[in-house]
Amino acid sequence: MVRYRRNFVAGGTFFFTATLADRTSSALTDRINALRAAVRLTRRQHPFAIDAAVILPDHLHVIMTLPPNDADFSIRISLIKRRFTAAVARSDSVVARNASRGSAIWQRRFWEHTIRNETDFERHVDYIHFNPVKHGLVTGVRDWPHSSFRYYVRRGVLPQDWAGDANENRLHFGERGG
Asked: What's the helix, strand, coil split of the chain in %, to 5?
């Protein structure tokens, strides 16, 4: 059995990916308000800052910074996933069950990466913002509504035309090959 090692750093900044079990699902964007409510409630009980985020139909990426003296990111991701699942189950949607009777909406685990420095942070923010283009959902980063990109533009951190248009050029953010 694989033993997962997590890097728990109090007050740390982390990049996460959480993915739905059904990669053809669009539940996250279809039920974006339920996801937002799950995040809001979790942040109230277990505070954290969202530094960047993107919600795609079947997965999400978030950069989160924890409060000083708090290293428990796992409880936050777990609560967001459970609360979103409960909201979907309360709706008329059918929630599949896996062999252990747990919800099969989400993949069991999540990907986590500890942000090491400012360059690492910037690369992950770029990856997050470019992700909808990478997946062919839009041709311009500015066109995806479920992203922190617009917040970065309002703050003057990034220009509105950042990364151009996918039809004009091929950029690679954190991807191998080319």
From this structure: 35, 20, 45
Rounded to whole angstroms, the Cα distance separating 77 from 129 reads: 20
- How many whole angstroms separate alpha carbon 99 and alpha carbon 76? 25
Which residues lie closer than 8 Å to 166 by C-beta, 6 or more apart?
133, 138, 139, 140
pLDDT digits 0-9 by tens, 99-134: 555 557 999 999 999 999 999 999 999 999 999 999
Please report the domains of the chain, with CATH numbers, ordered by start residue.
Answer: 13-116 (3.30.70.1290)
Q: If you ran DSSP here, which 8-state letter would residue 44 be given?
A: H
> What CA–CA distance (Å, rounded) separates 41 from 106?
19
- What are 19-56's pLDDT values in tens digits? 999 999 999 999 999 999 999 999 999 999 999 999 99
Gap between the Cα atoms of 143 and 138, Å rounded: 6
Q: How far is CA 93 from CA 19, 23, 30, 80, in A?
A: 18, 17, 11, 18
Q: Do 113 and 15 contact (CB within 8 A), yes or no?
A: yes
Query: How far is it, in rounded angstroms, from Cα 95 to Cα 106?
Result: 11
Cβ(83)–Cβ(42) below 8 Å: yes
